[in-house]
Design a protein that fits this description.
Elements: E1 11-15, H1 20-31, E2 35-39, E3 59-62, H2 69-74, H3 76-97, E4 101-105, H4 128-147, E5 151-156, E6 158-160, H5 169-178, E7 184-187, E8 193-194, E9 196-198, H6 199-212, E10 216-220, E11 226-227, H7 228-239, E12 244-247, H8 264-270, H9 278-290
Parallel strand pairs: 1-2, 1-3, 3-4, 4-5, 5-10, 6-9, 7-12
Antiparallel strand pairs: 8-11
């Protein structure tokens, strides 16, 4: 599938346009000539208090939210307020304005019974972040069913790429690999495997689903998984660096050891499939960290 080069509408709002996904999404929309209105905390917008000026807006991307699972454990109420109640407020304003919505959700399946994981698998949120995003999904389905609002839900697996916060796994490892002062790379646990999907592919998915008018719930992943050890090995190989590495033997509570997305549904709905290989994606992160 080629990257979308045109869209059936000319104006859009991106709620959460200063975040990792929202920023790249707005950049792509700008490049396609879409008139974009961006809203984020950095520009003074509060999703749980403020009203959206939606006159003339033809599509809303709701990307705003509190992220990062470790923080969610220490403040679950705040995550729920922003990610669930904030989503209800966005949906209600879009309902009144008659504007379709694309909602960016997350991995909500907990420990899977089998791999790959299809959208039909039971949702078993196993951390406060996933719980809050799943509540946002339920609000979307309610507004679809009882108000007729057009909503697409994209369940993003482990997104990575240039510009991601350093607290996330791949930029943390890339920084250790490239820092000459770091003699040994240390992580909590080498074993867990994740379905890593590059930010460019995620933006393609958002535009493919929204531009094609597809409604429903769709996984967005690569359809493969890599361990933490694989990430380190790939970073070392692609940087031409040799360092020792180890883990601290710290297994997180409720850890899921392997995750692979079934992406059949989104392929069938709009033809999307990932384009960025894991190796090329890691290269893009290393280049970003170097610069």
């Amino acid at each position: 599938m080629d990257r979308p080069t045109s869209l059936p509408w000319h104006s859009a709002a991106v709620i959460g346009n200063s975040g990792f996904v929202g920023r790249r999404l707005q950049e792509r929309l700008d490049s396609l000539g879409v008139n974009v209105r961006g809203f984020s905390r950095s520009t003074g917008y509060d999703v749980i208090r403020d009203e959206l000026p939606l006159a003339g807006v033809e599509h809303v991307f709701h990307v705003a939210g509190q992220v990062f699972v470790p923080n969610a454990w220490s403040d679950p109420a705040s995550f729920y307020q922003v990610n669930a109640y904030g989503t209800v407020r966005v949906l209600e304003q879009c309902r009144r304005a008659g504007v379709p919505v694309t909602y960016v959700s997350a991995y909500v399946y907990g420990a899977p019974a089998s791999l790959p994981i299809a959208e039909s698998a039971p949702a078993r949120a196993n951390n406060p972040y996933a719980f809050s995003k799943l509540a946002g999904e339920e609000a979307c389905r309610f507004f679809m069913t009882y108000y007729g609002l057009q909503v697409s839900i994209l369940r993003l697996f482990n997104v990575y790429g240039p510009g991601q916060q350093e607290s996330f796994l791949i930029p943390t490892i890339a920084r250790q690999v490239l820092d000459p002062a770091v003699r040994e790379i240390v992580v909590a646990d080498l074993g867990p495997r994740r379905d890593f999907v590059h930010i460019d592919d995620v933006v393609d998915a958002l535009l493919s689903v929204s531009g094609g008018g597809a409604a429903g719930t769709f996984n967005v992943g690569s359809g493969e998984s890599w361990s933490v050890e694989d990430v380190i090995a790939t970073c070392l190989r692609e940087s031409g660096t040799s360092k020792a590495f180890r883990d601290r033997g710290e297994r997180r509570s409720n850890e899921i050891m392997d995750v692979v997305a079934d992406i059949t549904a989104i392929k069938a709905a709009c033809g999307w499939m990932p384009r960025v290989s894991f190796t090329n994606g890691i290269r893009s992160v290393l280049e970003s960290v170097r610069s």
